[in-house]
Amino acid sequence: MLCAGKKFYFAAAVCIVTVTSMLTVSYLRQQRLSYQPKEIQEGRCEGKIANSTITALKGNKTFIISPYFDDRESKVTRLIGIVHHQAVKQLYCWFCCQPDGKIYVSKAKIDVHSDRFGFPYGAADIICLEPENCDPTYVSIHQSPRGITDQLPRFEIKNRKAETFSVDFTLCISAMFGNYNNVLQFIQSMEMYKILGVQKVVIYKNNCSHLMEKVLKFYIEEGTVEIIPWPINSHLRVSPEWLFMRDGTHIGYYGQITALNDCIYRNMGRSKFVVLNDADEIILPLKHPNWKTMMSSLQEQNPGTSIFLFENHIFPETVSSHMFNISSWNSVPGVNILQHVYREPDRKNVINPRKMIVDPRKVVQTSVHSVLRAYGNSANVPMDVALIYHCRKALQRDLPRESLIRDTTLWKYNSSLIMNVNKVLSQTMLRAPK
């Protein structure tokens, strides 16, 4: 009798597991089918082509930055955007297939990034399966799979064509804002980046001073800088901080995370590496002369790794050395980094944040100090290999000077840096030539 009871319960358990599995498989299949592109007859291949960096979709708390073709897992269009994490529930991609003019509609997966930091709006991936029988050039986004879409903006799908690497290192600077006027430190950082191996710097510019505009114009004409207009405060209430302040602000730090993700996808096909740090941060190699030899060594030591994280160290701008007090620089607004070679010691129970050099083709989603989703491994780079020189306001303001650590790594580059900065100041007429 006991044996019969055990057999009954076992059979019942098997039955429950089997039915549950069948229902799960059926549900997943239905879900997959619901995202498949469907050809529709209504509508036309029209609509004004969007030419702004940030485009607000009418009435549904969604902002589109740019769509990118992504075939790393399946053939999809991935739109980098900003959405309200609660209000936006459904979106659809409308694809126009040329030359036959057929229109396909795909239900979008809306993946709001996990690092909103409490703000109601956050970076999001809006992902749509593409039609199998065409490679659409443009996509429109609508709240419904039906309706008239002729007035919807059309977005060009980037990364459709494979590119060969045009540069080794592209540096992304997100959200230049606050009437930015730290001109001298910016020029010094730019020239250090070039010495270390950067060939392209992409800046998401909200605003800056007139003097800074003059410097940016120089670097644009030189071919080093690409400016992405970033008028996010025209669309949302922004915070200059990353921490949610509960003051009705919509998004933190001028949408920095969205800009960084866009920069990675924008440079996915044209740059071997993408560097994510701010204009007052420089990744300084200690064992190598430049980033190319450093990254070659790091990749050799860390096979299968695509994300390299470098530890941030504060060099307070309030603590100066008397070296390199170059009089002709004194009239240029901003910090002279060559005079700041004392760094703060590590704080107890506080982990120093990190910034990154990544293989962009292996990144799916990034945050500021780490990658959220990637195909490769991540590695923390030891401090004896490289560190981030971060010259800014002190974090440990009450430390006496003797508690700081003298670190003159930056001075290895002083001759080239001084010569190059002088050249820029002369050519931009910020300093009269000798």
UniProtKB/TrEMBL annotation:
It is found in: Membrane. Its main location: membrane. It is a single-pass membrane protein. InterPro entries: Glyco_transf_92 (IPR008166). The chain crosses the membrane at residues 7-28. Its EC number is 2.4.1.-. The keyword Lipid biosynthesis does not apply. Pfam families: Glyco_transf_92. Belongs to the glycosyltransferase 92 family. This is Glycosyltransferase family 92 protein. It comes from Elachura formosa (spotted wren-babbler). The lineage of its organism: Eukaryota, Metazoa, Chordata, Craniata, Vertebrata. The gene is Galt1.
